[in-house]
Design goal:
The chain is of the alpha+beta class. The protein has three helices and seven strands. It has a single domain, classed as Peptide deformylase (Peptide Deformylase, Alpha-Beta Complex), CATH 3.90.45.10. Helix content is 28%, strand content 31%. The longest helix is centred in the last third of the chain and has 17 residues. The radius of gyration is 15 Å and the shape is globular.
Length: 165
């Protein structure tokens, strides 16, 4: 398999709604293994397939408890309680900002064998899965920022896009 490279803000793949995964085979397992390797190589805590240019509904993450693989995620509920926490993104290098998100979530997803799972998450893991799931819907963390904050970031975002065009 070709070494995967993280793509950056401005690449149109990051704005696509990713396709559901229907085939759970050796090719998917190899792809996920490369996704995990890329995430660790890039020193990330999560990585979604669109971030390496593949528009498929899968992401991996490690919130400090080992690697988690999430395929075709859907949120069954999001808590009313929200919490603000600083986020960054491998696809938006060098930019960090506080983002307000639900404190707890209930997530339904599939594993590498296609088995269904439901999990309630809070704190850091809940934050990561929301951030990564956004990637599968073409949303970046900067989209959650107030217009004034985004306007302040525009020169830096333009620079990232220009350097990686």
């Amino acid at each position: 398999m070709v070494v995967m490279k993280v793509i950056y803000v401005g690449n149109p793949v990051l704005r696509l709604v990713s396709e559901e995964i229907e085939v759970f085979d050796a090719e998917l397992k190899d792809f996920v293994q490369e996704l995990v390797k890329t995430m660790y190589t890039e020193d990330g805590v999560g990585l979604a397939a669109p971030q390496i240019g593949v528009s498929r509904r899968v992401f991996v993450y490690d919130a400090g408890f080992g690697i988690q693989i999430v395929i075709n995620p859907e949120f069954l509920w999001l808590s009313e309680e929200k919490v603000k926490m600083e986020e960054g993104c491998l696809s938006v290098p060098g930019i960090y900002a506080d983002v307000l998100r639900p404190a707890r979530v209930k997530l339904r997803y599939r594993d590498l064998e296609g088995n269904h799972h439901e999990e309630e998450l809070e704190g850091y893991p809940a934050r990561i899965v929301q951030h990564e799931a956004d990637h599968l819907d073409g949303v970046l963390f900067i989209d959650h920022l107030a217009p004034a904050r985004r306007a302040l970031l525009k020169p830096r975002l333009s620079q990232i896009m220009k350097e990686n065009a």
